[in-house]
Amino acid sequence: MDRISAWARSADGAVAVRVGAGGAVCDVEFGPGASALDPHRLAAVVAELSARAAARAARRVAGLRQVAQRPAGDDSGE
After folding, report:
1. Which InterPro entries did the record assign (predicted)?
2. Can you name the residues that pair with 30 across neighbouring β-strands?
């Protein structure tokens, strides 16, 4: 589960954030449009994307835990 992460990207592609399964930010990428953003807006976008990516990573972890807890031979979730 340590390798699980998720990306969130702004609609305009100016910012992308990758968050690990534990909620820590692993990567932040800034596209050409990021330099046009006001610093306060840029910070808000990074925070919003971090939260979105963290939620995605948490859903992935939950899904894997659900699969791992199924009894052997139970494929009812597929």
Report:
1. YbaB-like_sf
2. 15
